[in-house]
Amino acid sequence: MPVPKIALEEHFVPAGLTELITNPGWPPPVWQRTLDLLIDTERRLEQMDRAGIEKAVLSLGSNGLQDVLPPHDAVALAREVNDALAQVIASHPDRYDGFAALPMLDVDAACGELDRCVDTLGLKGALVNGYSSDGTLERGRYYDDPSYDPLWERFAALGVPLYLHPRNPLPTQRLIYEGREQLLGPTWAFGAETAVHALRMIVGGVFDRVPGLTVILGHLGELLPFAIRRLEQRLSRRADVTLERPASAYLRDNFYLTTSGNYHTPSLIGILLELGADKLMFAADYPFEEIADGADWLDRVPISDTDRRKLASDNATRLLRLG
Q1: How buried is 42 (Cβ within 10 angstroms: 0-12 exposed, 13-18 middle, 19+ buried)?
Q2: How far is CA 323 from the centre of its chain?
Q3: Are 88 and 41 within 8 A, CB to CB?
Q4: What was the pLDDT predicted at 94?
Q5: Residue 248 is part of a domain; what is its CATH number?
Q6: What is the domain range of residue 179?
Q7: Annotated catalytic, 285?
């Protein structure tokens, strides 16, 4: 029997706003099918039932609001997207919860929208799709900038997490992929970009300034658990890094990881050894991945039943304070 699951990286888009979702290079028929599945939050319920997924936490797919310019357009779209998400949840409150989309170029507006989404709409935190394009699509704003501290303080005060979801590197930073564009997107570039962004937040002192901030990373942590000791060793020899704790302590204390789209048993075992079972959660990454792939793997992966239950639902229930 499938173990009961809560899935945390499950995407949607409101009908009429599909331009917010970026094609990672898929053929047009495949991409149109994906867009149709993002819109349709009814058909996926049957797949969730077969996989033992009792609840999915929905969020706007990439790049979402992070490429919307000028900032006031993103502010208006955030409200529209989040209201649409709340309507989806209201149609199946026992099956869906949600992460808010935020207009990250306007920190004050993002704080207000987070408050509204958590306190009024009942959403469980927010998901942002990487850096936000700043003035032009050729320049990005990363979230280690101290100007974001008021927003991180709101997350901490509300007791909700930030899900840092991938996107491709800036166009000016893709030379290494020139001639090998198949490595862009979820094949490789998504993970590398998101790992560096998370490290910017660690090395930039975000978690020293706001120690109560919790960040979720997908795809088994974008490879960070396997590189954190090496990073920590090298940082310890630099005079220009003055962190209050070792880098691995931030990964252990301030981050949760999900399994989305990375169902590799040796990697899972390594992360359990590095971080323990209390910081891992299930995600299917639908519709960019097949629900059954991740669910069947979790049902069969050779770990204890106690750890399986933690990954499947217990940790998510605790972190998101699900009823």
Answers
A1: exposed
A2: 22
A3: yes
A4: 97
A5: 3.20.20.140
A6: 5-320
A7: yes
Task: Please give the distance of CA 129 from its chain centroid, rounded to a whole number.
Answer: 7
**What does DSSP say about strands 255-258 and 132-133: parallel, antiparallel, or unpaired?**
unpaired
Are 156 and 183 contacting, i.e. CB atoms less than 8 angstroms apart?
no
Tokens 């320049």 correspond to 139
Active-site entry in 285, 293, 305, 314: 285
pLDDT band at 1 (very low <50, low <70, confident <90, very high): confident
- Going from the C-alpha of 109 to that of each of 67, 100, 114, 134, the distances in angstroms are 16, 13, 8, 16
- The Cα 50–Cα 236 span in angstroms is 48
Strand partners, 280: 257
25 — pLDDT class (breaks 50, 70, 90): confident
Q: Where are the beta strands (DSSP E) in 35-153?
A: 53-60, 96-98, 126-129, 132-133, 140-141
User: What total number of domains does the chain contain?
Assistant: 1
Sign of the four-CA dihedral 313, 315, 319, 323: positive
Whose tokens are 């390594």? That residue is 270
DSSP 51-66: HTEEEEEEEEPSBGGG
Q: How far apart are CA 191 and CA 313, in angstroms?
A: 24
**Do 59 and 7 meet the contact criterion of CB atoms below 8 Å apart?**
no
Helix, strand, or coil (residue 160)? coil
Could you read off the pLDDT of 91-122 as tens digits, one per residue?
999 999 999 999 999 999 999 999 999 999 99
C-alpha angle with apex 167: 166 to 173, nearest 5 degrees? 125
Checking 304-308 for CB contacts under 8 A at 24+ apart, the result is 306/277, 307/272, 307/277, 308/3
pTM strictly above 0.70: yes
* C-alpha dihedral, 30 to 188 to 295 to 25, nearest 10°: -10
